[in-house]
Design brief:
Length: about 260
């Protein structure tokens, strides 16, 4: 489906249209732009991702309001759709590289601008904040799979980008958890074990020598726990960390990372 957004801003409308054209190419339904084909998709994809990061940077977060939430929701939604193209195109190395590089940049900007803005709006617009965080789970989950795929095929150029991406995913987990805790809603956050999968969603049973696995475990990297578990929502949920009774939105919010 073509991306749907709530924003009526100029940048949002333009991005919606462009991502829609990319979606038509991915779906093989034919773009309205003659020059946009499967062969030209990778470089266009990179430019669109760069522009999305730019749009996210331009969002005013000094005084967060309803427009801020709408613009952030739009950017996150477009980000999710763009990352989903990696799975649909299947094994396009240039697009995977763009997803790792620009996906990391997007998340870094979201961490520095978006998350603090959402934190300031938790009590006024908690449903919208929850929706954005849950929507962000899908692309971050798949980016985790992309890191596993890159390591499993031992692509040097792609693998070089994996450590920083995993650190960024880990930082996202920690900051989301801290934000919810600051609003007395720790129980809304839970960690689940995320299996290593390739681009097609198949589990990767063994992708690294044992020595490397031991080194990674010693480094306390929790990016593998960045998204909700494949085994169901109850696994990994912190039963001993309830939300505060005075919190008006804690009971219905549940965000698995």
């Amino acid at each position: 489906a073509v991306v749907s957004t709530q924003s009526t801003g100029e940048h949002g409308a333009e991005m919606e249209e462009v991502v829609g054209e990319l979606q038509r190419v991915v779906d093989k339904t034919g773009s309205n732009l003659p020059s946009l084909t499967r062969s030209t998709l990778p470089p266009v994809y990179r430019v669109v991702c760069e522009n999305l990061v730019g749009n996210l940077r331009k969002i005013s977060t000094d005084t967060p309001d309803e427009n801020t939430v709408t613009d952030l929701a739009e950017c996150v939604n477009n980000f999710a759709v763009l990352i989903s193209f990696i799975k649909q195109i299947n094994n396009s190395r240039p697009m995977i590289r763009s997803a790792l590089t620009l996906g990391q940049r997007f998340l870094e900007v979201f961490l520095s601008k978006g998350l603090p803005a959402l934190s300031g709006l938790m009590k006024e617009q908690w449903l919208e904040v929850q929706s954005i965080l849950k929507r962000l789970q899908t692309p971050t989950r798949y980016l985790h799979h992309v890191t596993g795929h890159s390591k499993s095929i031992r692509d040097i150029a792609l693998t070089a980008k994996v450590p920083q991406m995993k650190k960024t995913l880990e930082l996202l987990v920690l900051k989301v958890k801290a934000m919810l805790a600051a609003h007395g809603c720790s129980a809304a956050f839970w960690l689940g074990n995320l299996k290593q999968r390739d681009l097609k969603g198949q589990e990767i049973l063994s992708q690294e020598p044992q020595k490397d696995e031991d080194e990674e475990e010693a480094g306390s990297d929790i990016s593998e726990l960045s998204i909700d578990t494949d085994e169901g929502e109850e696994e990994g949920r912190g039963e001993d960390d309830p939300c505060e009774d005075s919190d008006p939105y804690s009971e219905s919010m549940s965000i698995g990372y």
